[in-house]
Amino acid sequence: MNMEKKVYTHEEEMAICEAYRDKNNTVLDIIDKFGLSDHKHLRNILDKYDVPPRNAYAPRKKRTSLQTVQRKCPKCGKVIEQSGARFCWYCGADVRSKKMVAVEGLERCVIKNLELVTPAVRDEMAEAVRLAIRILKEE
Question: Residue 85 in contact with residue 95, Cβ under 8 Å?
Fold first, then answer.
C-alpha cells in the first residue's frame, strides 16, 4: 500500500515543530493530529528545521543492577557477594527477597504450563511473563 505524503505549508511545518517541542504531546499524537504518514515523515520535517530529537543530550538515569546491590544475610549478617544467591554461604539461611521468590514461582508455573497451550498463545504468554519478570527485577 503506497501512501502519498501530504505537502505542508511552512506555517503547518512550524506548527508541527512547535507541537514536537512541547513535551506534553507524544509523537503518535502529533502524527495523528497533523495527518503525517509515519515517523519518518515527522523526522524529515523536524530535520528540515534543525529540531533535535527529544532527550538527545539528557543524561540517562543509572539503573542499579542486581550485581551491584549488596545484600546481607538476615540470619548471620554476612554480606552476600554472589549475585542471585539463594542461600547464605556461611549459615545456609534463605536470602532470597519476596520478589525473587515470586519471580521464581512465576517462572516455574509458566514453564510447567506452556506445553498445554497452542504455539500462538504460548508465544504471547512467554512475552508477557518476560515483561513482568523484567519489571519485577528492575524495581
Answer: yes
Contacts of 92 (CB under 8 A, 6+ apart): none
Q: Is residue 56 part of a domain?
A: no
pLDDT value, residue 66 = 45
Query: Is 54 inside a domain boundary?
Result: no
Q: For 16-55, how does the pLDDT look when each residue is reduced to its tens digit (9 = 90+)? A: 999 998 888 888 889 889 988 888 888 899 999 988 887 6
Strand partners, 80: 71
Label residue 84 left, alpha or beta by phi (over 0 means left) and psi (-120 to 50 means alpha).
Answer: left
How far apart are the C-alpha atoms of 133 and 139, rounded to whole Å? Answer: 10
Q: Which residue has the higher pLDDT, 133 or 73?
A: 73
Between CA 63 and CA 68, with CA 64 as vertex, the angle to 5 degrees is 150
Q: Which candidate, 117, 87, 81, 114, places its Cα nearest to that of 100?
A: 87
Task: Write out the three cell numbers for 11.
Answer: 506555517
Mean pLDDT of 82-89: 81
Distance of alpha carbon 27 from the chain centroid: 17
102 and 117 share one domain: yes
